[in-house]
Amino acid sequence: MNIITQTADGSNTLYNETIGEHYHSKHGALQESKHVFIDAGLKFATAGKSEISVLEVGFGTGLNFILSFEYCVANNIKLNYTSIEAFPLTTDVINQTGYSAYVSSEIWNDFTKNYENALKSKQTLSPFCKLEIPHTTLIDFDTEERFDIIYYDAFSVQHQPEMWSDEMIAHACNFLSPEGIFVTYAITGKLKRALKANGFVIEKLPGAPGKREMLRAVKAKG
Ligand SMILES: C[S@@+](CC[C@H](N)C(=O)[O-])C[C@H]1O[C@@H](n2cnc3c(N)ncnc32)[C@H](O)[C@@H]1O
After folding, report:
1. What is the CATH number of the domain that holds 178?
2. Segment 32-51, tens digit of pLDDT
3. How many angstroms separate the alpha carbon of residue 48 from the centre of ligand 1?
4. Which atom from ligand 1 is nearest to the alpha carbon of 154?
5. Which domain holds residue 62?
6. What is the pLDDT of residues 79-92, one digit of tens each?
7. What is the rounded CA–CA span in Å between residue 67 and residue 196?
């Protein structure tokens, strides 16, 4: 059961009773998503580019997706977005998040009307955006596609440690192109070691409010 809860910046998140954790930071869902995935991730990855392919781990409410879609539209960047989700939310729950307030009505409508089909196959939302939400666990996910950036947005290591095991991180990183980027809100010694072992160069960046640091890592050319 997921319960809608307000966070410190006024934006909502969901509290997942089974896992015992929120989908976003209690200090601000919107500001965390913008800080970690848009500012430190997407802006960095799209510098000088006109196309980007994103692999997200944990689609959840789609907040990272709609903010990415809006950024790409505003900057004339084609977005190919794949987001793995083991436990998809219903369209009703997504409509209750209030996130329609943070993007244009066109983007929100393109998202919500294609959401359920995107759980089955890749959908073209606009000339600028394709979305697919494979309904599977990360460990069972496979594709021939390679991505420019991974948004690693799993529940925290305290609540879902298996999502942060060395094997799981290595599995996710297989789907990145050479020089691809891995970005997440968390930073631990174990995560840094796992990424280094997979040929990444690690950067520590200031975290979103409530977190001192976050992690961005770039995969070696190969
Ligand atoms: C922190 S939330 C993601 C928040 C999301 N990015 C958003 O903007 O709302 C973690 C997500 O991972 C999903 N999840 C849990 N276990 C998973 C697994 N084994 N594989 C893929 N997704 C999983 C959860 O259902 C949840 O939606």
Report:
1. 3.40.50.150
2. 999 999 999 999 999 999 99
3. 30
4. 10
5. 28-219
6. 999 999 999 999 99
7. 29
